[in-house]
């Protein structure tokens, strides 16, 4: 609506000062001609706004002009009180600041919007942690924050996954990212992007040297690049398994990162071995025969991908509710692991 657009222009000019008409047009998804018409409308309404033509021109307000109007809609007010990741504010030491900011926003809201905003804060809770995540190592973000906000290089002592010794790196931070309750430092090391888990940083020292980021590169761009590298890692082991349907939801939650597609749950799709489904070849014939009355529709087929063969051992947590059908070497790994567990518990300690 035009009224919302006029208010957006006003607030942008108050925040940014002089802004090129083309940039305003891009932000508001209108043409520069529309922006100039809106500027004329603001001027006619008594707002001291003016336009400067030329290469370095733009739209601006007269110095010293401010407005107290928030112009918030009910939905905008509610959105401010649905704050994802309270734990993120705690880790950054911003809990008190957050509470103070929300109280100020509440006081500034138009009276008709306050009940909806207050009710949203009481009725909506966002917990960023995954189920069954267990306790997480504490991450000291103080030095990391300092480097991020002061644009200084950072020297860290870091422990990589699976290693005990610490490595020392000098990095150029872009920022911090909280993903599923885990904090990451996104930085360049020797001009190349790298991801560091904050809870594996043993120590961090902010140097006096200015940061050396790649020109024009922002945190969001580097994060997406690193995220794709993690998610698109090649997987060497493709596994087909069947799982009882009453355990399917649990398996999807636990194995979500390994699933390569949605489960196949069509009636009588023949997921079990030895039933002519072609999965696993002849080696699977006669393995895991079902008891009488154990129908195909009680099972679902899932496809999984693992980086190494040994990783299939995590499927043992589902007991006899999950059976790997292929490849044969994955079945052998599980059989050997199960035999080792049986031997371990065969005698009374």
From TrEMBL:
Organism: Streptomyces endophytica
Domain HTH deoR-type positions: 2-61
Skewed-composition ranges (Gly residues): 271-285
UniProt region (Disordered), positions on chain: 259-291
UniProt keywords, alphabetically: Transcription, Transcription regulation
SUPFAM superfamilies on file: Winged helix' DNA-binding domain
Pfam families given in the database record: HTH_11, WCX, WYL
Protein name stated in the entry: WYL domain-containing protein
């Amino acid at each position: 609506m035009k009224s919302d657009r006029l208010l957006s222009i006003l607030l942008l000019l108050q925040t940014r000062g002089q802004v090129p008409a083309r940039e305003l047009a891009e932000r508001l998804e209108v043409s520069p001609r529309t922006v100039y018409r809106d500027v004329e409308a603001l001027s006619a309404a008594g707002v001291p706004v003016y336009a400067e033509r030329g290469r370095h021109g733009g739209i601006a307000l007269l110095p010293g002009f401010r407005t107290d109007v928030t112009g918030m809609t009910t939905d905008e007010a509610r959105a401010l009180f649905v704050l994802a990741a309270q734990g993120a504010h705690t880790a950054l030491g911003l809990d008190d600041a957050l509470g103070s900011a929300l109280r100020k926003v509440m006081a500034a809201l138009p009276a008709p919007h306050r009940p909806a905003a207050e009710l949203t804060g009481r009725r909506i809770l966002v917990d960023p942690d995954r189920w069954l995540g267990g306790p997480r190592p504490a991450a000291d973000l103080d030095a990391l924050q300092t480097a991020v906000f002061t644009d200084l290089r950072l020297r860290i002592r870091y422990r990589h996954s699976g290693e005990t010794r610490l490595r020392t790196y000098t990095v150029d931070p872009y920022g911090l990212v909280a993903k599923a309750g885990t904090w990451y430092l996104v930085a360049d090391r020797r001009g190349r992007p790298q991801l560091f888990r904050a809870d594996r940083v043993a120590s961090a020292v902010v140097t006096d040297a200015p940061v050396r980021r790649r020109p024009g590169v922002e945190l969001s761009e580097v994060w997406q690049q690193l995220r794709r590298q993690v998610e698109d890692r090649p997987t060497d082991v493709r596994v087909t398994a069947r799982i009882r349907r009453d355990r399917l939801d649990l398996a999807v939650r636990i194995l979500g990162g390994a699933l390569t597609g949605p489960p196949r749950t069509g009636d009588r799709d023949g997921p079990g071995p030895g039933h002519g489904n072609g999965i696993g070849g002849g080696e699977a014939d006669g393995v895991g025969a079902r008891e009488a009355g154990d129908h195909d529709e009680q099972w679902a087929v899932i496809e999984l991908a693992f980086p190494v063969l040994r990783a299939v051992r995590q499927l043992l947590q589902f007991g006899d509710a999950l059976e790997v059908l292929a490849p044969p070497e994955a079945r052998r790994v599980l059989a050997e692991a199960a035999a080792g567990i049986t031997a371990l518990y065969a005698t009374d300690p």
